[in-house]
């Protein structure tokens, strides 16, 4: 099964994954029209309100958040614990999974890759994979957690959401050396004397190696894709930028 060419569609100022929504999940990515969702330079209470509004509009009580640190830790989420939990109580992890309906998982991103994984039944998960998380195998770690929870990797489907594409993502030699050291050198390209890290192909390869067959790549670049999205690399001169939220949940 390959539906990589099916475009993510815009609905209610969000972009949606046809693959995962076709399996009965709520799965997508916010746009700037819904406001900044996490981190960055916008007021925290404003962003908490934006997340609450988003969750309600999607039919969920709230959005589960973690403190993202560009690592490969995966946490289990047993339920929505309330949107007003102070930031310092959020678990430190770049991937999360749940086996509960009614829980809306999320990944904050403004260039980093959101990877959403689910099947028609069983556990679901989301990972935040920038260059560092990708090279540390956060996507592999997420699928391992889902398989340990009983998921059949051949039945899992994954969506690689909007994020900075190989069109725009150049990295310096020091970073490239670390990527090579961590075994992801196949996804480094050279273009016009610069080194490009293809985060889409790197995460797709991790998913395939983990046994997944149905993988959808949105191929929407946050920097040059022409959508209403913030990009960390493409931020304003004053450094201001917001953060979108990728979301995945099984409706009750
Ligand atoms: Zn681009």
TL;DR?
The protein contains 6 helices and 14 strands. With 252 residues, the chain is an alpha+beta fold.
How would you describe the shape? globular
Number of strands: 14
Largest sheet: 6 strands, mixed
CATH H-level superfamily: CNF1/YfiH-like putative cysteine hydrolases
Q: What is the terminal-to-terminal distance?
A: 27 Å
**Mean pLDDT level:** 93
- If classified by CATH, what would the architecture be? 4-Layer Sandwich
- Number of helices, counting only DSSP H or I runs of 4 residues or more: 6
Structural class: alpha+beta
Radius of gyration: 17 Å
**H/E element order:** EEHEHEEEEEHHEEHEEHEE
Portion in helices: 10-25%
Strand % is: 15-25%
Ligand roster: zinc ion
Order of strands across the main sheet: 4-5-8-7-9-13
CATH fold type: CNF1/YfiH-like putative cysteine hydrolases
Task: Quickly name the level 1 CATH class.
Answer: Alpha Beta
Instruction: Tell me the number of structural domains.
Output: 1
* Contiguous runs where pLDDT drops below 50 for at least 5 residues: none
Please give a structural write-up.
- By secondary structure, the chain is an alpha+beta fold.
- It has one domain (9-165, 199-249): CNF1/YfiH-like putative cysteine hydrolases, CATH 3.60.140.
- It contains six helices and 14 strands.
- The protein has a six-stranded mixed β-sheet.
- The site of zinc ion has 6 residues, from loops.
- The site of zinc ion (ZN) has 6 residues, from loops.
